[in-house]
Amino acid sequence: MIVFNLFHQMKNYDYRTYIISQIVYYASPTIFSSKPSTIINFNNIDSSFYKMLPSIKAELQKNFRLYTYELFKESNRCLVLFYKKELLLNVFRENISFLSSFGYKYDMTLNQILNLLKEKYALSCPHEIGIFLGIPKEDVVAFMTNNKNFKLCGYWKVYSDEEKAKRIFAEYDRAKNLALNFIYNEYMHLKKTFNN
After folding, report:
1. What are the backbone angles phi and psi of residue 73, rounded to the nearest 5°?
2. Which of 13, 39, 76, 179 is deepest in the core (most CB within 10 A)?
3. What is the pTM of this model?
């Protein structure tokens, strides 16, 4: 609730700050932790969003080495993948034997990988997206088979190593707390507005 209230107040105060803060918060496991990528779905957006997006992308890249790729775009909706290049390439290489059954090849460039993912997204949400989001292969496979016997549900449905998943979930939660601190400190000029 605190996060929702914070974003609501920011949106009313400054739309650009609101968008950046949402990205920093929701992509915090990628920014401040080991998650290779995060998908954020922006709804009810208008042309001002698309006008400021290039400068927001540049700011995220400069401040966090966070890159962006639009997986899907409509006039009022945009689905964006936020990622760290090396982490995304590493998870791709570690899972290439599994990903090859979905049309990926070991020698693909990052751009080719993302383009293929985008093509697949145009049809429906591809199951292999879980790999790119840092979900263990065993959990992705179990989810794909519509297995109902998951052990834990948090950032994803956990079917295999519950203890490891709990550690990762705690790491992602710490990243979200870091993001909230960053947002609050970065936008000091807004503190007075939020405290009134």
Report:
1. -145, 130
2. 179
3. 0.90
Cβ atoms 76, 45 nearer than 8 A: yes
Encoding tokens for residue 172?
């992602």
- In Å, what is the CA distance from 38 to each residue of 25, 59, 138? 11, 17, 19
End-to-end CA distance of the chain: 17
Question: Distances from the Cα of 65 to the Cαs of 7, 35, 86, 133, 183, in angstroms?
Answer: 23, 13, 10, 17, 17
CB atoms under 10 Å from CB of 53, counted, come to: 17
pLDDT digits (tens, 9 = 90+) for 54-75: 999 999 999 999 999 999 988 7
Q: State phi, psi for 42 to the nearest 5 degrees.
A: -95, 120
User: What is the rounded CA–CA span in Å between residue 99 and residue 106?
Assistant: 9
Give residue limits of the domains in the chain. 2-135
